[in-house]
Specification:
429 residues; alpha/beta; 10-stranded mixed sheet; 20% strand; globular; ligase; magnesium; metal-binding; purine biosynthesis
């Protein structure tokens, strides 16, 4: 079976990790193709164990699938090794991990610049995690980046780092009055990482091509989500990569003709972390309800997530942009107990109703949601496993979301556990 892409349809944190884990036992490869350790997936296994993954693909918890970090990911080796060790201590087999030699490294100067630039921006800050992701991608584009394969050649590593620090240390010291990065200490630190990471570094493109030729199932897992895409999201309040379906080809090195299914994940409401426009954001008791009941705190940062009602304009945009074949709605149970459940069906901008994403940043900042209210439900739905198990009003809500997105809803999450789902249509045959 050809490749499957799994993406987020909102601003991230939709529950992609749960879906990856749900499919993990039925796929042969799980590939992370974008982002860095600014992303996070929380997975709860059937025995109740909770795993917070940041760089490792969520398929790491599958007993069989090969797990791959593709060339489109930026890797902080210290973070990755800590995650490998943490999983190994809990009995997870990490020997199946392979990392593209072309994936770029996050270096100490990237983290330092990320933090100081964000502070310098003040009220205009983007809301980054301060983990060096943006500066690492910036160096990649500027062609002065350092890659995983460079760890295998100490001479190349030193030469590339020396070249990079000529500029970066000048900026840190003379512009921001910060301590310069020490070349020798950094080379020594990263060569220690090299010893441990060497067994995992591979030519992952050829590995995936061979897998596809054999008919193996390859699941491509995006970090972050559509509205954080560098080109198609709410720029400049975005991540520094392309977590949309098109980015899977670039970030993993597979041909677009290999992809035959795109699964998008969306919460039954909307959240985002960091700065930027958010038309349906709630600042009242309803927002607090969603945050509290939904445990809306970032997996990576612990920051409170901003919460709002479901935005069908955003979801429909994501479905069209990514060519979504199957939509997964998570956290429907969080809406239980609300007398009315609004859905944003359009925007009002300068007195004019629009039903599609505005073209300009200015218009999106000024978009006011147009709501359609549906009746809520009070029944506990966490034990529901079929559509008939859901209350009538919950079924109506799902049907209306499906209609507004013009995309088949295949799975509805009714709780955080791996098995707490209503499967309307199988994701895999």
């Amino acid at each position: 079976m050809p490749a499957i892409v799994l993406i987020g349809a909102q601003w991230g944190d939709e529950g992609k990790g749960k879906v990856t884990d749900l499919l993990g036992e039925r796929v042969d490869y799980v590939v992370r193709y974008s982002g860095g350790n600014n992303a996070g997936h929380t997975v709860i296994t059937p025995d109740g164990q909770k795993y917070a993954l940041h760089l490792m693909p969520s398929g790491a918890l599958s007993p069989n699938a090969m797990i791959v970090i593709g060339n489109g990911v930026v890797v902080d080796p210290k973070v990755l090794l800590a995650e490998i060790d943490g999983l190994a201590e809990r009995g997870v087999d990490v020997s199946r991990l392979r990392i593209s030699g072309d994936a770029h490294l996050i270096m100490p100067h990237h983290r330092a610049l990320d933090r100081v630039i964000e502070r310098y921006l003040g009220s205009s800050r983007i809301g980054t995690t301060g983990r060096g992701i943006g500066p690492a991608y910036g160096d990649k584009v500027a062609r002065i980046g350092i890659r995983l394969q460079d760890l295998l050649d100490p001479g190349i590593l030193r030469k590339k780092l020396e070249l990079a620090l000529r500029e970066k240390n000048q900026i840190l010291f003379k512009v921001y009055n910060r301590k310069a990065i020490d070349l020798e200490a950094t080379v020594e630190e990263y060569l220690e990482y090299a010893e441990r990471l060497k067994p995992y570094i591979a030519e992952t493109r050829a590995m995936l091509w061979d897998a596809l030729d054999r008919g193996d199932t390859v699941l491509l897992e995006g970090a972050q989500a559509t509205m954080l895409d560098m080109d198609h999201g709410t720029y400049p309040f975005v991540t520094s990569s392309n977590p949309t379906a098109g980015g899977a080809c670039v970030g993993a090195g597979i041909p677009p003709t290999a992809i035959n299914k795109v699964i998008a994940v969306s919460k039954a409401y909307t959240t985002r972390v960091g700065a930027g426009p958010f038309p349906t954001e709630l600042f009242d008791a309803s927002g607090e309800h969603l945050r509290k009941i939904g445990a809306e705190y970032g997996t990576t940062t612990g920051r409170e997530r901003r919460c709002g009602w479901f935005d069908a304009v955003v979801a429909r945009y994501a479905c069209r942009l990514n060519g979504v074949t199957d939509l997964v709605i998570t956290k429907l149970d969080v809406l239980t107990g609300l007398p009315k459940v609004p859905i944003c069906v359009g925007y009002e901008i300068n007195g004019v109703r629009v039903d599609d994403m505005p073209m300009s940043q200015t218009d999106f900042h000024h978009a006011k949601p147009v709501y359609e209210e549906l009746d809520g439900w009070w029944e506990d739905i966490t034990k529901a496993r079929t559509a008939d198990d859901l209350p009538e009003n919950a079924r109506r809500y799902i049907a209306r979301v499906e209609e507004l997105c013009n995309t088949k809803i295949s799975v509805v999450g009714v709780g955080p556990g791996r098995d707490e789902n209503v499967v309307l249509h199988p994701l895999l045959p």
